[in-house]
TrEMBL record:
Lineage, opening ranks: Bacteria, Pseudomonadati, Pseudomonadota, Alphaproteobacteria, Sphingomonadales
One Pfam match: PepSY_TM
The name this protein goes by in its record: PepSY domain-containing protein
InterPro entries per record: PepSY-ass_TM
Residues spanning the membrane: 21-44, 156-176, 205-224, 348-369
Keyword terms of this UniProt record: Membrane, Transmembrane, Transmembrane helix
Organism: Sphingomonas albertensis
Amino acid sequence: MAGHRRSAASRARILLRRVHLWLGLSVGLLFVVLGLTGSALVFYTGIDTALHPAIQAGRNDPAPDLNARVWDRALATGRGRWHDTGGKWTLEVTGEGGGIPARYYPAPGHHGDRMMVWFSGDGTRIVRAEPWGGYLMSWLYQLHMQLLAGAFGSQVVGWSGVAMLVLLASGMLAWWPRGSWRKALAFKRDAASIRRLRDLHKLSGLWSMTLLFVLVTTGVLLALPAVTQALLAPAAIPAPKSRAPKSRDGGAAQISIVQALHAAHRALPDGHVVFVDVPSAHDAAIRVRLQVPGDPHRRFPGSFVFIDQFSGRVLATHDVRRAGTGTAVASWVRTLHDGTIGGITTRVLAVLLGLVPSVLFVTGILHWLRRRAARHT
């Protein structure tokens, strides 16, 4: 009976090793690409800024506050160049001096993706304007998230990520020691090269396993938003079924960005403004995005205030703290994936983790090839 159990365990371990090998050969290279691009993207705004000195002018100047006329000046400068009446502008409030980052979204149905724009610190000039995907860091972002293939690419990334989780789990289970843990965790420096490759592969995977699981799982959730919503929906507070907030055009002029920012601050006084979306369509609302205490992501927080663009009246407020457990969990997904959860330390750790799939792929392939060569000699 004991021999039968050992035989069954041996067959299961062989099957796990085959599954691990097949998955490594099929999705391993994609794992490498996603890991390397992910490492580059951890500091992508800083890298992009370093590559474009024009947007660094005035970086040591004080950051404009919410009363500064620079916001409306920048919007007027942008509208002077792009005249699409149905487009939308998004200005980013970075809390730093220097160029003002912005995005211009053409009206639905118009050709072209969003335009990334940087205004001078005083808002009077456009110092840089490039289409999203048309410069290095945005190209890497699209490669990482969608394999440069749009929505279909997101599906490929997401479901391949599920296969990568199985790859990691099968590697762990196939390795699981039957005897001494100390021996199983050792790196034998004096062993044959094929054994050293195996040990390097094994230890690289073991020491990074937990964090890689977090990284890959959050990547799957980001790539498959419909799946994420379905998983978290039971824990979320159902939102009332209503149309998006609309502005009422009573013939008045559009309010200034400064007025909109003050209205948002009154609605969420403990919030920190991060983005303001200003539409050109007369029935759309101005949307201000804020980070409130408890929201982990500083750059892409989940709280919004919708403001009538003519009267300045607050039309709706979405406070992420009142949206239920599901929304709270979802708010942690991005910050866990990009390493911003713990500041510079966890971001550096995320960079290093992104390099691990390359180590695992190279050592795994070399070990497999040497084993194959040994069998044929």
